[in-house]
Amino acid sequence: MSRNYLQAAVEIAQEAGKILIEAFSGPLDIRYKGDEVDLVTQADKRSEQFIVSRLNEYFPGHAITAEEGTGQDTASAFRWHVDPLDGTTNFAHHYPCFCVSIALAERDTLLAGAIFNPYYNELYTAARGEGAAFNGRKIAVSKVPTLSTSLLCTGFPVRNRRISPNLQYYGEFTQRTHGVRRDGSAALDLACVASGRFDGFWEFGLNKWDVAAGVLLIEEAGGKVSDFAGEPYQLGAPVILASNGLIHEEMRQVAWEISRRAPAPGSR
User: Fold this and answer.
1) For domain 147-261, which CATH number applies: 3.40.50.10260, 3.40.190.80, 3.40.605.10, 3.40.50.2300?
2) Can you tell me the distance from the alpha carbon of 84 to that of 200, in angstroms, rounded to the nearest whole number?
3) Which fold has domain 2-139?
4) Where in the chain is the domain with CATH 3.40.190.80?
5) Which whole number is the average pLDDT over 76-104?
6) Whole-prediction pTM value?
């Protein structure tokens, strides 16, 4: 059954990707959500409207949580987590690091996920118990064994940047690794950990739709996802730590040490 859900997620993500590429190639209609930092484009809205309508068509009665608010709550145990355009700021500046992210959970269990970067035609997929794939080929996390030889990624919030603790983590991890990248799309960051491009990832304050598909990808690719205390990650938790598994404990120890000096939301 997960395979059928995944097939639907892939089809819908690829069609939504066409909407984004069409908008990306022309002048962008940019608006703001509440303040001058948090962007939203008409492409976000058009992509989400398409995704939600297609999910309703294929799976009537399923609950849907979507970033721009057009989802629905139902009594169903099945819930889709939809980010119609992850990396909106990149998109608005014509930086081609953005994607569509769609995942399905049955209560607390992720069943299927798809992340699609339409600019590069890169598709990441995962189904519970069936592994993860990149453009149809099976993927696995990296085999980098130590934090000192790793390449990490992270992100910074669009809101309340001044009170985010992440600059301290960014500096510390930069000193202890081959480097830290910040590409502006949490979904793609997680997908890149799953495929071995990055060895680890951490971030604060992410929403369920930001991470649902990426968390499943990493788990199915053999990696690990937790909070800073090492407890299993719960969707929507204040902090997320993801890795190839081999460097996870080193990353966790560093993050925990920093959190004791600069407490992060939910880190204690």
Assistant:
1) 3.40.190.80
2) 24
3) Fructose-1,6-Bisphosphatase; Chain A, domain 1 (3.30.540)
4) 147-261
5) 95
6) 0.93
